[in-house]
Amino acid sequence: MKKITRVLSAFLLLFVANIHAQQSVLDDLDETFDSADVIRIEANRVKAALKTLTVDYLVNNNVNADVATYLQVMDVGMEVVEEFSDEVIFFIGQAAQGNSNIDPTSIQTKASTIEGNEDFVRIRSAELATAIQQNNRGTARQLIREIRGLLNNQIQLAKDIKDEATALKALATVYNVRIELVDERTGAPVPAGTLPGYAATNQATGQIFYTDYYNFDFFSNLPAGTYRFDAYDGYFDGASSAIVTLAPSLVNANGEIVVTLNYWSE
């Protein structure tokens, strides 16, 4: 009895630890998403200030266009972009440490590109200020195009990071699944231990997962996806298969998804 209690206690502790670890990864991905959104907002704000300056100088022919206000908005915006690019790199790295299925390379590369573009926005903006002060319209027009392109690139990369972080949340979500047997003729419950064991095959990857050693009817931490659940047949009995797409809506009050297989016997 003590041995059973120790096993159950260990399983419970492992279950709780896994839940906390999963939530931590999801939180890191949320931070990645939110940081990318801040980058998008700030780059758009600088872009709007650039548009105001462009209209004032090139359309309204104002040789005294308010360059100082644009530079102020740009400076603050690019400081924020730099800070939150680092945040993206940090949080996606944390998520990858917590879940080996997450590859941070793509998002970190995009964040580094955004950060590199930030330097060029500053350099080209300083050159733009000089061109406007010297009333060099041709140079100013070219620099405005370059700065706009850099900002558009930051905005698009930030959107891409948000999309990737959202997709990774599905990858990071794991589920606990318990197998239940019911008699195919009567519908009466049948102990899961009646059959030798169970397996779950991911329908997209073909990867096969097996039940826990001490919990022969329990799959812990199955990644999100669609699975075919099978039972190993006994000498004169077995069970049907079931294909289930794991989803939050299927999780019961115990934090499990119950998959029911129809038991048959000769």
Could you describe the 3D structure shown?
By secondary structure, the protein is an alpha+beta fold. It folds into 2 domains: 2-171, Four Helix Bundle (Hemerythrin (Met), subunit A) (Up-down Bundle), CATH 1.20.120; 174-265, Immunoglobulins (Immunoglobulin-like). It has helices spanning 2-59, 67-98, 105-133, 137-172, and strands at residues 174-183, 189-190, 198-202, 208-210, 218-223, 226-231, 237-239, 242-245, 257-265. The strands form 2 sheets. Strands 1, 2, 5, 7 and 9 form a 5-stranded mixed sheet that branches. Strand 1 and strand 2 (189-190) form a beta hairpin. Helix 1 (2-59) runs antiparallel to helix 4 (137-172) and helix 2 (67-98) packs antiparallel against helix 3. The longest helix is centred in the first third of the chain and has 58 residues, at 2-59. The radius of gyration is 28 Å and the shape is rod-shaped. The chain starts with a helix and ends with a strand.
